């Protein structure tokens, strides 16, 4: 009898039922100002077990809040072509099927469309009931996959993102839509290898790409390893800066120390430079087969566009991941970054985790812990008013090992030391997953109904 892989046991194991449940029990009080859906995506392999945590079929879990009540929970697989027809990302001839993949990494809304995303696949449209409405290729204009970490500019409403090739160039293509969701820019960026590019940075004036030394490895792919990427010490680490007002213009490259970064909390322009916050791994997958996750911590990179130098500073030494900000400050000088301590990777022993709130202006940190055996996931920021950077809540799925169930927990982002504002008890556990969004109903004005 073989031992299940770490990414298939405990709360990494998939759930088998798609549920719809109404009038959820709540401890505490759901803020009356919150009306909308909290949606979160993550791997939930169906039928056969997945070969790697990153490869399980996507399942979106959603909790509906309405003016002080938690009115429903539902969870649905993202029915992409791999789910419905076993479609392969590449066929035997090396042809790529952009509808195939996992669709398991994030869920975002732009121009009224709710999109389930993973970086090897086209976005998939979801209905308000979380049914899958098909792949979305922006009217046939999108010819690459789409990162799971697009950025919406709060000033213009544009959606900025990229797509990566894997076996053949171009390995990096930059895309932009207008506020209506129409694809207006698609531009290949040459000179980049087949690197694993998971996220990027947006500022008011720039787009920043991370060309880092975790690269596609043909030998690993041929040998059947589920994660065909490895650390390449000969591959230079660098940042590529593109001006937003010249999207087809030059990309300037800036060398940095070797490292890997999955996630960029935020970035902004400052003087003649760009300041990025990143969750930095000193290296990744050098000797292992793509399943170990070293300690990652919060760093700041400051790109001096005049001298060409990048200053790199570690801001904290805690092991942390899944950073989020008030998305209304994307690309601007957001004061607060929220992260999860001891993110529950399959190769780590799950330990009682915590949410952190970093004050990027003062360096102070506040923390919320959830008690023994209670493990949080990424926390989305839900605004309490119309002021970007103002008050709000963090909402996260918390797994309770003692009950083998999960709650949606809402805490006051400005008072993390306080008990949760609301703990919404769900009818089943929510496996550890990746990224989600708070999607207030269109037209909802939090200030109209009060903060509590
Ligand atoms: Fe991610």
Automatic annotation (TrEMBL):
Pfam families: RPE65. InterPro entries: Carotenoid_Oase. Transmembrane segments: none annotated. One of its GO terms (molecular function) is metal ion binding. One of its GO terms (biological process) is carotene catabolic process. Its EC number is 1.13.11.-. Binds 1 Fe(2+) ion per subunit. Its cofactor is Fe(2+). Fe cation binds at residues 149, 198, 263, 435. Keywords: Dioxygenase, Iron, Metal-binding, Oxidoreductase. Belongs to the carotenoid oxygenase family. This is Dioxygenase.
């Amino acid at each position: 009898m073989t031992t299940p892989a770490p990414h298939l046991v405990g709360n990494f194991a998939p759930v088998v039922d798609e549920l719809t449940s109404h009038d959820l029990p709540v401890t505490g009080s759901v803020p009356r100002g919150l009306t909308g859906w909290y949606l979160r995506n993550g791997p939930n392999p169906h039928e056969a077990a997945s070969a790697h945590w990153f490869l399980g079929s996507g399942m979106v879990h959603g909790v509906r809040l309405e003016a002080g009540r938690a009115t429903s929970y539902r969870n649905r697989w993202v029915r992409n072509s791999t789910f419905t027809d076993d479609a392969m990302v590449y066929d035997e001839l090396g042809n790529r099927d952009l509808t195939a993949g996992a669709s398991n990494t994030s869920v975002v809304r732009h121009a009224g469309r709710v999109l389930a995303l993973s970086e090897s696949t086209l976005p998939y449209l979801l209905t308000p009931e979380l049914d899958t409405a098909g792949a979305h290729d922006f009217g046939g204009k999108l010819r690459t996959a789409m990162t799971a970490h697009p950025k919406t500019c709060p000033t213009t409403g544009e959606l900025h993102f990229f797509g990566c090739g894997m076996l053949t160039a171009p390995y990096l293509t930059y895309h932009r839509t207008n506020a209506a969701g129409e694809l207006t820019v698609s531009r290949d960026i040459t000179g980049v290898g087949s690197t694993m590019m998971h996220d990027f940075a947006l500022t008011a004036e720039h787009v920043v790409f991370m060309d880092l030394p975790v690269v596609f490895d043909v030998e690993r792919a041929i040998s059947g390893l589920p994660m065909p990427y490895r650390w390449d010490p000969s591959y230079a680490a660098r940042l590529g800066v593109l001006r937003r007002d010249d999207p087809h213009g030059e990309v300037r490259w800036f060398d940095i120390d070797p490292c890997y970064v999955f996630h960029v909390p935020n970035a902004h322009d400052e003087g003649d430079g760009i300041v990025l916050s990143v969750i930095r791994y000193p290296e990744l997958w050098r000797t292992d087969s793509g399943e170990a996750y070293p300690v990652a911590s919060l760093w700041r990179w400051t790109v001096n566009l005049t001298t060409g130098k990048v200053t790199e500073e570690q801001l904290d030494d805690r092991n942390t991941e899944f950073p989020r900000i008030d998305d209304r400050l994307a690309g601007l000088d957001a004061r607060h970054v929220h992260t999860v301590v001891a993110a529950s990777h399959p190769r780590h022993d799950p330990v009682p985790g915590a949410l952190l709130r970093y004050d990027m202006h003062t360096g102070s940190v506040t923390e919320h812990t959830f008690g023994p055996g209670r493990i949080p996931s990424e926390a989305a920021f839900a605004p309490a008013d119309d002021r970007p950077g103002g008050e709000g809540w963090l909402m996260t799925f918390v797994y309770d090992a003692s009950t083998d169930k999960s709650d949606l927990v809402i805490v006051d982002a400005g008072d993390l030391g306080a008990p949760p504002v609301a703990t919404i008890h769900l009818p089943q556990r929510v496996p550890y997953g990746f990224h989600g969004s708070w999607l207030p109903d269109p037209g909802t004005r939090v200030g109209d109904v009060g903060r509590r």
